[in-house]
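Hey team,

Filing this mostly as a record. A colleague (T.K.) asked me to run one chain through the structure pipeline before their review meeting, and I want the input and output archived in the tracker in case anyone asks later how it was produced. No errors, nothing strange. Just documentation.

Input sequence:
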Amino acid sequence: MSKRSGAFALRSIALLLSLALLPVIVVRFMNWPEPQEWELAVRLFRVMLGAALFAFILSEVTRNYSQVDRLWSLMPILYAALVWVWTDFSPRGGLMAGMVAVWGIRLTFNFARKGGYRWPFWKAEEDYRWAILRNMPPLNRPWIWRLFNLGFISFYQMALILAFTLPIIPGSLASRALGPMDFLWAALMLTAIVVETISDEQQWRFQQAKKKYQESGLRPVPDAIAKGFVMEGLWSRVRHPNYAMEQLVWIVFYLWGAWASGTWLHWTMTGCVLLVLLFYNSALFAEKISGSKYPDYAEYKKKAGMFWPRF
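Output structure:
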């Protein structure tokens, strides 16, 4: 096994272990779920198990491993809506569920225009990174890839989606009345969504222009496009502005629910922490691919921060 493959395998194992260990650590050193919180979490967990099993079976049958990707923006809307209904349409729960819906609709649109949804849906676009992973040792062994699909792609990611949506439970059950602070949290979350939308739009326009020059053979190719990767607008200061804002959305969502519950160290912290770990490793993997494809990417990394600007 190569050094790079070994490092990737270790990071994958660390992510899987974190799903099992982090909730234990959080509950041990923070607060246990209240009975009503636990009841709602168990209900959502059952829904998650069904969705994860569906994604796994469908991906194995179709050999298209982006089934969870297609559910990523939809499941939080469902989870938030269910909690809102189960808590008798809590005012704060409604506001939180509404913000999750705004996030989900935006992300669904962005994924759809990239070919993520198509009929029949199992033939829709697959994330190119899954194909690269399938060819990396030791994942290029069929039985190991199947275990990876079951453990990480299907169940870990679906559990993570549930985990970062869980703050709506303490937010909906909190006795604190809906007030100005709730609208401040909503405004912060909306701001992150808007910035993420801008960064995705900048990337989309760059990729469309790049595709146009590649397909038409037009010459000369502008320097910004010839480099092969977007580095204008928000991307001139940050290498992954969309990833940064996606993490911020769910960190704010956690803080919102924790504030409503009256304790900043709440057991629902697990979701946003795991999300940050996932995006960090995903960014590392994406940069490894970009660095191998584009000669100028190493210089770009010196000028732009990964998630936050260099000052």
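Quick notes for T.K.: The chain has one domain: 3-303. Residues 3-303 form one domain.
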